[in-house]
Amino acid sequence: MEAEFSEIRNELESRDALWRRIQLECQQLHTGLLKIREYKDMQEIQIKHQSSCVQITEQLENKNAEFLLLAQSQEHQREELNKIRNHLYREEQSHRSEQERMKTEISDLTEELHQKEIAIATIMEKASLLERQLKMELEIKDKLLAKQQLLDFQYKVIKSENTHLKEMV
């Protein structure tokens, strides 16, 4: 994309330089035209040099024709330059809007990531709390199980003693 912009800019600069040269040449032609007109006026005063006037008039007409062609070419170049500038402007606008869209998308994704990180941290905290609660419940159940086993053992001992006492009686 940058290479295309660079190529378009180079073409614009080249056409702009050409346009300036054409303008300079037009100015030179215009200056020459003015000089030719002055020369023609002088020639009209000097009737003896009438043949030179015809040549200068022909040259002037040729220069006028060249000038008209250059003016048309210059107008065409200006139109082309404007088309290229408009195209470049549209491309730059498109590029800028794409960059803005990408920035917005990155911002949205960053916010979503941040929210997910917060959710993960919250889940980790809850998991840690549940793990501690589970450990505490396991410890309590282990103590109750040990107490139950002790009571079962004591019950069996007492039952055995009871049975033994009944036999003795």
Automatic annotation (TrEMBL):
GO aspect biological process, one term: centriole replication
Subcellular location: Cytoplasm
Keywords: Coiled coil, Cytoplasm
Coiled coil: 71-126
Major location category of this protein: cytoplasm
Cellular component terms (Gene Ontology): centriole; cytoplasm; deuterosome
Protein name: DEUP1 protein
Organism: Rynchops niger
Designated gene of the protein: Deup1
